[in-house]
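Q: Hi! New to this. If I give you a protein sequence and the SMILES for flavin-adenine dinucleotide, can you show me the bound structure?
A: Yes, paste them in.
Q: Okay, here:
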Amino acid sequence: MSRRRVHHAKIKSIQWLPGDICLLRFQPDSVIHFEPGQFLSLRVPDRDDPENLLWRAYSLSVPPEMAKAEGYEFCIKKMPGGHAAAYLEKLAVGDTLTLRAAYGDFTLRTKAGRGVCMIGTGTGIAPLRSIALSREFAKADLLFGIAIVGFRSYAEVPFAGDFERVGLATTYAISAHATKLSFPFYNGRVMDVLKRLKPDFPWLETDYYLCGSGAMINDVIRYLKSAHGVKDSAIFAEAFEPASSNPSKAA
Ligand SMILES: Cc1cc2nc3c(=O)[nH]c(=O)nc-3n(C[C@H](O)[C@H](O)[C@H](O)COP(=O)(O)OP(=O)(O)OC[C@H]3O[C@@H](n4cnc5c(N)ncnc54)[C@H](O)[C@@H]3O)c2cc1C
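A: Thanks. Here is the predicted structure of the protein with flavin-adenine dinucleotide bound:
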């Protein structure tokens, strides 16, 4: 990953949600230019050797116009034993973050007249939300839009209602809920919801935006291609893989 401009930012608020998910809001010392769906690199001290500095990728969960008006925001899942996780636990309002910006090509590419299907699991909904709430998305003249978002439990859902309010028909796939849920909630995984879309769903007139674990993304891509003949050019994906599995993303 190429080096970008370094920014410093003050933490405005830290909100912990169920499932060890943190909404971290911050205000940089100068405007960070980014496209909806892009990520920043956050400087994080090594848990065992704080002199050693690491970099971790986090997607912005807001579009640029919201970031400027209300503050920039990350939606971060605390990974057990992680370096960023340990750093996150110690952060307080008013602390300064060091960031590099902006990276990534997980941005809106859909042409007017086509549909959009967003699929995100866990904090993978962050860049999808940034795209969905953006000015570009509102102006995109799409045929239709749907969102399928997946969480372990009902309580872990952040940003409930945000996709619906910009016109995306949204289903919440909840994988670990004991009792039967009713629409828009569904007992199962995002893949189960995808497989239950109506037979006349316009598979080939739709662009797919996938974000979350590499395993989920691979399963969905395999299904879209083998069951419905979706072309690679209609699939856009961002895997939230650990930095250690792809050293180039760590710097
Ligand atoms: C482009 C990109 C954008 C990202 N955006 C976000 C985001 O918006 N929100 C967010 O929460 N995360 C995001 N991530 C993941 C994030 O960069 C870190 O990998 C994650 O926060 C763990 O960092 P850590 O230092 O706490 O864990 P590490 O110290 O790197 O690892 C600790 C343990 O957790 C495992 N682990 C680490 N990361 C993951 C992972 N992503 N999935 C499964 N196991 C993991 C490791 O294998 C290890 O066992 C993104 C990743 C990429 C590549």
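A: The chain has seven helices and twelve strands. Let me know if you'd like me to explain how to read the tokens.
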